[in-house]
C-alpha cells in the first residue's frame, strides 16, 4: 500500500531508456484494449450499440500495439522488456471501474475520454522533459497516436450510436437509476420520516424527557432502517423485475429510512423540551418537502399534489403521536 502511495520501488520516468519507453507504450496499449473490451462486455446487455463502439476502439488499440511491437522488433529485437504503468513513478493510473456491474454508460464514455486524454498529456509532458532527440520524437509520436484515439472515439460513437440511440440509452440508464436507487430511497425516506413521527412525538409528549425521547427515536429509526433494508433484499432479487442489485437497493432503503427517522429524533439532544420539539418540527417540514421534491423530480408527480399527499399524511401521523402522548 505504501509503495503505491509514495512510489517506493518505482522507476522515475526520466530514467527509462528508449527501449523501456517503447515497451511501456506496448503494455499500455495492450491494457487499454483489454479495458475497452471489458467495457464492451459490461455494456453489451443494456447498451449494445455503445458496446460496439468500445469493441471498435479495442481493435484500434490492437492495431497501435501491433505497430509498436513491429517498431520494437526492428530496433531492439524479439524480447520485449517487461514494464507496465504501475512500475513507473508518476505514470497515470486507472481504477478498475470496468469490474463494476452494472456499468453506467455516461461514466464509461467519460472514462474513455479521460483515458485517451491523460495518455496524450502524459506523453506531451514527458517529451518536454526529454533532452534526447530520438526519445522526444518517439514520445511526440505516441502523443499524436493518443490524440488520434480521442478523435476516433467521437467518430465511432457517431457511427454506432446516432442521436436517437444515444437518447434511448440515456433514458434506459435513467430508468435503471430510478428503479435501483430513487424508488427504494424514496420509500425509505417516506417510511423513516412519516412512520417514526408517531412513536417519537408520543414519547416526547408523554414523558417531556428529551433523553428518553432521543432513545426512542434512535431505536425506532435504526430498527426501521434494518427492517426495511432486509425486507427489500429478501423481496426481490432484481432478475425478473429489472430493479437492479438487491444489496444496493437494500442499503439505499435502509440508510434513507434511518436518516428519515433520525432527522427529527436528533433534535432531542437539546435538553430543553420545547426548544427540541420546535427544532424537530422544523426538521419534519424539510423532510416532507424533500419527499415532495423527489417525487416531483424523478417520479413526475405534480409538486402540489405530492406536497399535499405528504403533508396530509405527515400531519395525521404527527397528530396521532401528540394525541397518544397526551392521553
Set down the secondary structure blueprint.
Blueprint: H1 2-6, E1 11-12, H2 18-43, H3 48-76, E2 88-89, H4 105-128, H5 133-160, H6 163-195, H7 197-207, H8 210-235, H9 246-265, H10 273-298, H11 303-326
Parallel strand pairs: 1-2
Helix pairs in contact: 2-3, 2-4, 2-5, 3-5, 4-5, 6-8, 6-9, 6-10, 6-11, 7-8, 7-11, 8-9, 9-10, 10-11
CATH homologous superfamily caption of the largest domain: Ferritin, core subunit, four-helix bundle
Assembly form of the protein: single chain
Which regions contain 5 or more consecutive residues with pLDDT less than 50? Answer: 1-7
Q: What string, H for helix and E for strand, traces the elements in order? A: HEHHEHHHHHHHH
Largest sheet: 2 strands, parallel
What structural class should be given to the helix and strand makeup? mainly alpha
Span between termini = 61 Å
* Percent helix: over 70%
Please give the count of helices. Answer: 11
Going across the major beta sheet, what is the strand order?
1-2
The CATH C-level name of the largest domain is Mainly Alpha
CATH architecture of the largest domain: Up-down Bundle
Mean pLDDT: 75
User: What is the rounded Rg?
Assistant: 28 Å
